[in-house]
Amino acid sequence: MKRRSAIKNLSLAVAGMVSLPAWVSAWTPESIGQVNSLPIPDENLLAEITETIIPETQTPGAKSLKVHQFVLRMIQDCFGEEAQTLLEQGLLKTDQLANIAYNKPFVSCDTAQRMELLTHLQTSDDPAGKQFVDMVKNLTMRGYLNSEYVLVNINHYNIAPGFYHGCVPI
Amino acid sequence: MAFFNIDSIKDRTFDAIVVGSGISGGWSAKELTGRGLRTLVLERGRDVQHIKDYPTTFKNPWEFPHLGQIPKELRDANPIASRCYAFNEDAAHFFIKDNEHPYVQEKPFDWIRGYQVGGKSLMWARGTQRWSQYDFDGPARDGFAVEWPINYADIAPWYSYVEKFAGISGNKDGLPQLPDGEFLPPHEQSCVEKHFTQQMAKHYNNTRPVIIGRCAHLTQPQPIHTQQGRGQCQNRTLCQRGCPYGGYFSSNSSTLPWAQKTGKMTLRPDSVVHSIIFDEKKNKATGVRVIDAHTKEMTEYYAKIIFVNASTLNTNLILLNSTSNRFPNGLGNDNGLLGKYIAFHNFRTTISAEYEGFLDTITEGNRPNSSYIPRFRNVFKQETDFLRGYAAGFGSSRMLDTDRSGFGESLKANLTQKKYGNWHVSSHMMGETIPKETNYVTLDSDLKDAWGIPQLKVSVAYDDNDEKMIADFHQQMTEMLTVAGFTNIKTNDRPDKAPGLDIHEMGGVRMGKDPKTSLLNKWNQLHACQNVFVTDGACMTSNSTQNPSLTFMAITARAANHAVDKLKKKNL
């Protein structure tokens, strides 16, 4: 399948990066490379799933913060082949379920239907479905909470706060 | 880089050679150059210049593609380094790659190394507690290992000397088992840590003090620090990346630039020391053999005195590899004890708990330090069925109580709502292990590294004493947390955690009174080759419960000044 080979290619690219001597002295996030390994429809599907988990409100949601890129990158670079398969099959399963339940792909479903589908996958008898949703949800929350938007605008992150107070009122 | 002429012996001759540029090597360099000696400092790794070579130091969390996590390929390729808590996306470039520097684990030992100018002084955890007379008395009193040839009084002025220069924050606590030093203002304890301190004083009649740790951070820089170009600690707690402010002590920000300013230091990175050259006619060492890390070419450098500060196990390796007709088993190794009596700190277990009070308070900002429980077991007399004791770190934080259920708008709102749960505290044990002859390093007879140097074979393990100590830590800490009102107390021993991850390995070239039972005299000179000094962790006769780096610094400064005194009197 295309998806599988795309993931494989990415792994090779990353392995190549790791062995570059530049990593030692001139490490930059750019040198690790960008992630865009899934075929566009699958990447869009993942983006819609993350957006369902953390939607756009008055503030940006997962999709506009590109949290799905983070989810992909973590699964491909850090989680190993088992997780990659889980992602692949989970995406397939999500669309299959949408087609069975609503006779249309996940991306065409409305918000209520999408939440229904994710909840169903998470609570169904199929352990792989639950694992897939849990993995994507956990990574989505992690990516969102550590995005520049949330850290700067909501948590007021400052790299050099220059203080420590051991006991202040909440 | 042809800044020296390899054809000229004169150009390869210095007053002193220092092997290694980490915490102790940096101090050797500073003291020897400061006393006017032309000093060659050899570092096996690459150059790392202060600020310029800290590539991640200003990066924000979201600028790391994996938010700090190490990609799987890199983790799988480096299983040893990966077990170190600081081997993350922001600092992995300061750790060696496992496959480039192989060693033999006769027993599991996670040898954590940073081969670069500054060594591990860039990534250390910066705890700087003095040792006390009880630590120096330990071996003689308990009968393990051999007696130390020095007392606390010998080292105390040198503690003061290095503390003032390095910048150590702490509180004067007046404890006999943890002497006070020359302190900058201490960090603050949180209300829960203060509560624990007070409860311990009350329930144990002041016999179990809990204090704020002493650490190498400039909480209030003094003129001596600004002269080094260092500034106030910014509480970023990103220390393992290298600090652009010089807020914590490292060779890179402090001792090496200071030595450089004298004009007497020649720093040579990428220089792997093969062995020390012993001249039988002169009956002393005359220099070192260095292999260029890249070209693999060997060059000899000469000096009147040699300081070996390669880090504990590499110092052992170099001496074991320095063979001659006079010393067929390694330099100074007449008694066959070189490489033996290696010890470490037992960091295998932790304990955690919760506190249901102070719910209307929280901490703000970051603190590059924690509270500290000095050793309270067997301090003044032997009172348990195990030898020695343990210290412990003690930290606290307020946990976020986040509702992570569901999907969509409600989840999104819940995630950023600051709802706090109970206070969470945790403590890690730092146990003293007993130096034993059966804990040793030696050279593998067949395997060599990429530079043709024999691989080090490490055979170091826990023993029954360590197991008893772990059980006692669990029992005593559970009792202490219980009487202080903590709940949900959980112990977490990790029997699979090999020695080494503590990064406090010591010994193998121990100091002592008698050349029959030790390698070094009270001035850190090899008994049998007095112009060679060993002042890193390898020299330690026993290893206390306190963090060792401050003691390495003090012992180094003391020995270096002694060496210069002797040299000036033409006694070396």
Automatic annotation (TrEMBL), chain A:
Keywords: Signal. Pfam families: Gluconate_2-dh3. Residues 1-26 form the signal peptide. This is Gluconate 2-dehydrogenase subunit 3 family protein. It comes from Adhaeribacter arboris. The lineage of its organism: Bacteria, Pseudomonadati, Bacteroidota, Cytophagia, Cytophagales.
TrEMBL record, chain B:
Gene3D superfamilies: FAD/NAD(P)-binding domain. Keywords: FAD, Flavoprotein, Oxidoreductase. Residues 105-324 form the Glucose-methanol-choline oxidoreductase N-terminal domain. InterPro entries: FAD/NAD-bd_sf (IPR036188), GMC_OxRdtase_N (IPR000172), GMC_OxRtase_C (IPR007867), P2Ox-like (IPR051473). It holds the Pfam family GMC_oxred_C. GO terms for molecular function: flavin adenine dinucleotide binding; oxidoreductase activity, acting on CH-OH group of donors. Transmembrane segments: none annotated. Residues 435-555 form the Glucose-methanol-choline oxidoreductase C-terminal domain. Its cofactor is FAD. Belongs to the GMC oxidoreductase family. This is GMC family oxidoreductase.
